[in-house]
Amino acid sequence: MVDRLANSEANTRRISIVENCFGAAGQPLTIPGRVLIGEGVLTKLCRKKPKARQFFLFNDILVYGNIVIQKKKYNKQHIIPLENVTIDSIQDEGDLRNGWLIKTPTKSFAVYAATATEKSEWMNHINKCVSDLLSKSGKTPSNEHAAVWVPDSEAAVCMRCQKAKFTPVNRRHHCRKCGFVVCGPCSEKRFLLPSQSSKPVRICDFCYDLLSSGEMTACQSSRSDSYSQSPKSSLNDVSDDDDDEDSSD
């Protein structure tokens, strides 16, 4: 079905509408063979709080952005190559229901659908697109992914030293390797994570010691496993001082 739609006028028109909604600031989306599979609003678990985002699933990429005017205008476009995506279901907890993790080498985050049916449809379509891409390219699924950031609200004190309380002066920082919320003194070191940035990024002391000793997988696996069990446990080269609508995600 995807192959039949690839060169159809209806598909070209739908993709053009998406491009126009992002305006001049968005990247061109029309390329030969690309098909718009579906779209919808998902709740993305951001650094400060859950926020509604418009998502577009194509047969080779996942695109999302901030909603300015529904169906008419979006901004802060993000494009994720599906070839690098893996997804995992996460358990319902409180108001956060029907969620799953979207994991890539550069950024990982949780999203939530309005219903269980919608969640199932999104996950099935994403998995089908990823499977088709990998089948065509002969590549293997990515086993490297960035940590999911713990939301600020989940940490009143540093998650490493368990002592430093966060205040307007003593700000929260995120370790780019494990995703924990940490204080400044516990995250003074930088380490080069090529999949996330071309420059050394902030990491906590615990992860720095693991990375320096070559035990890279231990740090990441413990973080991702804990998140898969509960929602309580994000853009390339994000600055600690970024705090706008999306770079703060």
Q: Can you give a write-up of this model?
A:
The protein has 249 residues and is α+β, with helices and mostly antiparallel strands. It folds into two domains: 137 residues, Roll (PH-domain like), CATH 2.30.29; 62 residues, Herpes Virus-1, CATH 3.30.40.10. Helix content is 25%, strand content 24%. The strands form three sheets. A seven-stranded antiparallel beta sheet has the order 4-3-2-1-7-6-5, with helices on both faces. The chain has a two-stranded antiparallel sheet with strand order 8-9. The protein has a two-stranded antiparallel sheet with strand order 10-11. The C terminus is likely disordered.
Biggest pleated-sheet summary:
7 strands, antiparallel
Query: DSSP strand (E) fraction?
Result: 15-25%
Number of domains: 2
Structural class: alpha+beta
Q: Count of helices?
A: 5
Summarize the SSE layout with pairings.
Blueprint: H1 2-5, H2 9-22, E1 36-45, E2 50-58, E3 61-69, E4 73-81, E5 86-90, E6 99-103, E7 108-112, H3 116-137, E8 173-174, E9 181-182, E10 190-191, E11 201-202, H4 205-212, H5 216-229
Antiparallel strand pairs: 1-2, 1-7, 2-3, 3-4, 5-6, 6-7, 8-9, 10-11
